[in-house]
Amino acid sequence: MIEINNIKKAFSGKEVLKGISGKFYQGKSNLIIGSSGTGKSVLLKNIVGLIQPDEGEILYDGRDFSKPAAIQEIRREIGMLFQGSALFDSMTVLENVMFPLKMFTKMSPQERAERAQYCLERVSLDKAGSLMPSEISGGMQKRVGIARAIVMNPKYLFCDEPNSGLDPQTAITIDELIQDITQEFNMTTVVVTHDMNSVMGIGDHIMYLCQGHKLWEGNKDNILDTDCKELQEFLFSSELIRKLKS
Amino acid sequence: MISLGKYLIFLGGLFKKRERFQVYLEQFFEECIQIGVNSLFIVGIVAMFIGAVTCVQTAYNMVSPVIPNYIISTIVRDMTVLELAPTITCIVLSGKVGSHIAGQLGTMRVTEQIDALEVMGINASSYLVLPKLMAAVVMIPMLVVLAAFLSISGGYLAGTITGVINSHDFLYGIQYDFIPFNVPFALIKSVVFAFLISTISSFKGYYTRGGALEVGQASTQAVTNSCISVLLADYLLAQLLLN
To answer: Kind of pairing, strands A205-210 and A29-33?
Structure first.
């Protein structure tokens, strides 16, 4: 479980996160939702350590992420899928997936290749290993990103807008993959999204952010019954949710 | 001043929390090809023509019958070794290598590849920049030595083909009153310039923010700042080591 307490962050005097607290549970897909510019990605970057919060603490199973001794240990337990996949464009798909193994394990090249190939099979890309990232589609790049994120058997998986730029069918495939992997490996998965399909599909635990505040917390089963006006406005801007509600 | 402070912190960060030696070794050889081997053509062309032009123009200015002809090649040699080979080569490399490094790192930054390295717990600046720095410090002095050789050869060819100096005089002139310290001086300059080009370009690329437009701006700034710092260092080294 990941616990965040009173996270605050400002850029050039403008407060983006205004004291956010909450928990992200193990074995569940934890979603951070909200409109564009509400601080979702900034919160995620604070949680993974790409940005230092101005105030507050982040605990990974009780371990304080601000303590230098814990940072390296926790980082090795993190896998992350970036919005643009962030594959290394000088490496093939297989080399991308093998990269963390090469950097952090003493596996032989043969063992690394076998493990990477298993992860590619897990995301249904077993024949794409020799291709360069520029030779595959956006959806495939996301799946390679997931394969690279899980290759080290992480305890925590973070996904920043995994469905952005994808067609609805591919987006659902990615969502299902994230959900399956989360349950299979019993990971704590945190997904930043504003895609309503994702919210209703994999939202085991949902945190709604608005203007840097956390306004609501719940799950996909009770989100439509919310009393939070801002969340209602956010939800009912989606045609899908309007149809579901009616 | 803020940029200078940030640059110094960036340099310090290169040597903290380094990865295994083996990791750098592979990267180092790749960068040697990129920085050294791939620059051979442009460095060779520039050096040959600069040597040729220096020889012809020096001959054009030597109109006094009191001055012996071999002085032309002595001037070509000294100008080449002291200034043209190290400085002009490094100015050319500021453009070629500097823009390549800044563009590569800038693109990696805006496409979150550097963030991906950091999330994995890798010191991204060290992993990406240290091999480039090492390769530049090894390969650029070699390119400067080659440029000096080709520049003097260019001078020889131009001088003898156009008839401004004969072969015997040219060969005598390049050995006449030779100061051996000029060679290590040129090598010291090339090592300092290599350090400046690789680190300034990396710094500009590494801290790129935004998109394609900013990557282009970072490349331009990398070239401009590298050229200025090479010229400034050239002057300071001449003052320090030749006086």
So the answer is: parallel
Short-list B46, A196, B97, CA closest to A208: A196
On the question of pLDDT at B52 being above 90, the answer is yes
Residue range B61-78: average pLDDT?
88
Of A75, A86, A87, the CB nearest to B121: A75
pLDDT in tens, B194-230: 999 999 999 999 999 999 999 999 999 999 999 999 9
Q: Which helix (H) or strand (E) holds B2?
A: helix B2-14
**CB-based contacts of A38, cutoff 8 Å, min separation 6:** A209, A210, A211, A212
Residue A15 has pLDDT above 80, yes or no: yes
Is there a contact between A107 and A115 (Cβ–Cβ < 8 Å)?
yes
pLDDT for A244: 66
Domains of chain A: 2-77+156-245 (3.40.50.300), 85-153 (no CATH)
pLDDT of the residue at A245: 66
Is there a contact between A7 and A53 (Cβ–Cβ < 8 Å)? Answer: yes
Neighbour-count burial for A204-241, b at 16+ CB within 10 Å, e otherwise: bbbbbbbebbbbbebebeebeebebebbbebbeebeeb
b/e sequence A173-186, b meaning 16+ C-beta within 10 Å: bbbebbbebbeebe
| All structural domains of chain B with their residue ranges | 20-242
The residue of A47, A103, A158 whose CB has the most chain B CBs within 10 angstroms, and thus the best one to mutate to test that interface, is: A103
- Chain A residues in contact with B19 by the CB 8 A cut-off are 103
Residues of B whose CB is below 8 A from A80:
116, 119
- One-letter amino acid at B18 equals R
Q: What are phi and psi of A195, to 5 degrees?
A: -90, 120
The model's pTM is 0.88
- Chain A residue numbers with beta carbons less than 8 Å from the beta carbon of B116 are 80, 82, 86, 88
Segment B81-107 mean pLDDT = 95
Q: From CA A81, how far away is CA A119, in angstroms rounded?
A: 14
